[in-house]
Amino acid sequence: MKLLITGGCGFIGSAVCRMAVDRGHSVVNIDSLTYAANPSSVAMIEGPNYAFEHVDIRDADAVTRVFETHKPDAVMHLAAESHVDRSIDGPGAFVETNVMGTFNMLQAARAHWDGLSGAAREAFRFHHVSTDEVYGDLEMDDPAFTEDTPYDPSSPYSASKAASDHLVRAWHRTFGLPVVVTNCSNNYGPYQFPEKLIPVVILKALHGDDIPVYGTGENVRDWLYVDDHADALLTVLDKGALGRTYNVGGNNERTNIELVRTICELMDKRDDIERTDHASLITFVSDRPGHDVRYAINPERIRDELDWSPKISWNEGFEKTIDWYLDNRDWWQPLIKTGQFGQRLGQ
Q1: In this structure, which of 7, 48, 117, 275 has its CB flanked by the most CB atoms within 10 Å?
Q2: Which of 50, 135, 157, 214 is catalytic?
Q3: How far apart are CA 163 and CA 145, in angstroms?
Q4: E strands, 35-90, where?
Q5: pTM over the 0.85 mark
Q6: Average confidence score pLDDT of the chain
Q7: Closest listed residue to residue 229, CA positions, set 143, 310, 317
Q8: String of b and e for 166-186 (b: at least 16 CB within 10 Å)?
Q9: Is 157 a residue of the active site?
Q10: What is the pLDDT of residue 339?
Q11: Of residues 132, 165, 227, 228, which has the active-site annotation?
Q12: In CATH, which superfamily holds the domain spanning 2-192+223-252+292-312?
């Protein structure tokens, strides 16, 4: 298929682009190249099956032009402002991109789909990629999120993603647009911009800097390796039922402090790093406003209906991620030189 992928120079989007091309699809990557995008994350797939469009999804005319030019068989919509702390400091950009940008994508996709016929119209899909944060907060003994959990977003980021989810479902119910929706747990792995927890811990530990942990570190997240997520997204695109939502989790639930200590222990054991007391760098800092206590995914639907489960679990993914950051300093060192690492946001 020819896949139109938004946000394909970002962390998850680039993983989807790489995997899609590797599996024989053609990819058209729409990306506005914000601070969190990096074209080098997809440089290895440049060729006849890959095209790049430097387009901001907030620009409706530009989005329409891309559809008219490339005539995709399906859409995978990942482009979003995604960092909770940044949404606290500047929520406007999150509403503009995540809500209005999704509206523009839906309108352009609907016009494109209306012009299709036969097998092409039957096969078209709009896959909207979202987050488990739309469900809000769980107490420690609450059952995990299911696809029927009511929405209760806590941050400007999660509220904007919840709004975009509702738009996608409305375009399905009102206009018949063939959509699927996925809500995932916290992603980690190679090519993640170093403002998220795991790359922050790895790079702070590597440089001997204080490793900041919000509050008491008892907040719980489920961790999903990014290549597992990309595989799940392509599976849902191929096999998911129209109008259906699928929660994607990693079966890897941990407190933040447990996660940080795990990464420190893994780095302690490496022969190529002299330091063996990385946990001594852990520093507790003031908590994030509105910090949700726990997220957890019930993965039964995607497992039972689509026969998908994560392949990477527990420490294996963390070891692979540490290896990648140590082996690919040329990817992240320029970000540190430009001051895009280590600053506390969202206070």
Answers
A1: 7
A2: 157
A3: 18
A4: 50-54, 74-77
A5: yes
A6: 94
A7: 310
A8: ebbbebbeeeebbbbbbbbbb
A9: yes
A10: 55
A11: 132
A12: NAD(P)-binding Rossmann-like Domain (3.40.50.720)
